[in-house]
Amino acid sequence: LSVIHDGDSKEVPVIPCGLERSHDSATDDAHTGKPVISFEVQVAATKNGGVTDYFKEKFNFRLVTKEEKVGGWWKYTTGHHEEYAGAKSLRDDIRKEFPFHGPFVIARAEGRRISVQEALTRTGQRWTP
């Protein structure tokens, strides 16, 4: 698990659950040199950090979850997809299987959040509801 704290990324040890660790979205595409744009699913935002264990205990949510602090909020995302459709499918699965309130797709470029619309435009992909 990685956490952004005071602008620095820190790794937090977690108990392995057999799932594959997500890739670093800040790396460049090896073939084009362009920044990799990725899509993730935000499942929650809280004023208090460190609730990933709560997700596991309360909801049996075992997907690798990243925690980052943005302003006064801790935001929790899962997944790493270069295709919007993959993140949308994961969002739909999470909506069906877990009681999170309104999980949604987010986008990143060079590790920073950007709008999904910008990511779709830059990658030539189409949005679908």
Summarize it:
Helix content is 23%, strand content 33%. The protein has 129 residues and is of the alpha+beta class.
Could you name the key traits of this structure?
129 residues, alpha+beta, 7-stranded mixed β-sheet, 33% strand
Structure explained in plain terms:
This protein has 129 residues and is an alpha+beta fold. Helix content is 23%, strand content 33%. It is built from 3 helices and 7 strands; from the N terminus they run E-E-E-H-E-E-H-E-E-H. Strands 2-1-4-5-3-6-7 form a 7-stranded mixed beta sheet. The chain is globular, with a radius of gyration of 14 Å. The chain starts with a strand and ends in a 6-residue tail after the last helix. Mean pLDDT is 82; it is low at 15-28.
Overall shape: it is: globular
Order of helices and strands: EEEHEEHEEH
Structural class: alpha+beta
Radius of gyration in whole Å, from Cα? 14 Å
Strand order of the largest sheet: 2-1-4-5-3-6-7
Low-pLDDT runs: 15-28
SSE map:
Layout: E1 2-5, E2 8-11, E3 37-46, H1 52-59, E4 65-70, E5 73-81, H2 84-97, E6 104-109, E7 112-114, H3 116-123
Parallel strand pairs: 1-4
Antiparallel strand pairs: 1-2, 3-5, 3-6, 4-5, 6-7
